[in-house]
Amino acid sequence: MTIGVWVLGDQLWAGQSALASCQASKSPVILIESLHQGQALPYHLQKLVLVWSAMRHFAQDLRATGWNVTYKQSVDFNTPLVAWIKHHKISELRVMTPTDRPFMHLIQRLALPCKNHLHA
Q1: What's the pLDDT at 21?
Q2: Structural domains counted in the chain
Q3: Is 76:36 a contact under the CB 8 Å cutoff?
């Protein structure tokens, strides 16, 4: 059984619950830049640049501390997430509960071939 962790763009700290519930040497991590998500909400372009830059730096920080991190840029979340799940044979996906309701609904709607576990 492989537990994977999906880190969202507003959850960039090593102590967040999904990461804290796993071991760096055993749980792969994914961060995804979604162009569709960036266009769907009224984000200012400079804000997107800052969020995506912070995500890239956080991915590097996680790698430096032993995490197996995949960083993807995509049109959507679903395509790279499903491919990553299949590649790593993820049987359980842990995601810290999103702070905004629309994103929570997005995660719940994603067609994932594994069990979701949201961590508050």
Answers
A1: 94
A2: 1
A3: yes
